[in-house]
Amino acid sequence: MDLFTIGFTQTSAEEFFESLKKNHIKTLIDVRLNNSSQLAGYAKKNDLKYFLKALCDIHYVHILDLAPTKEMLDQFKKQKNMSWIEYEQSYLNLIDNRKIEKKLSPELFENGCLLCSEKKPHHCHRRVLAEYLNEKWGDIRIKHL
Q1: Does the predicted model carry a pTM greater than 0.90?
Q2: Angle between helices 84-98 and 125-137 (to 10 degrees)
């Protein structure tokens, strides 16, 4: 299975949507906790859903079970009380406790793309999630756009 990840920060709408089209994405899986912020620009939930369908014929789904908790995000980003390693482990524990690999169908992720705001995947939960799913389901080729 091919599973992609993408962040929208510091990326123009043209680059974002062309990258999705070029890679034949079927479903964009939004893994953000907050997807309705005015700061999200073209990636704001309802706008994004419209653009994906109209421009790329891509299905949009927002799955809150794949997002970190507000408390985790606040500790990591705002309070700086948590290192990346601690955040990553906390997020892994969270999705493991949620048993997402049992709740969700691998078919949803086939040629799917995990969306978050971070430009690069290195310190983003979308990378951790993709690697977790590969560990649980196996045979996933992960590509970061």
Answers
A1: yes
A2: 50
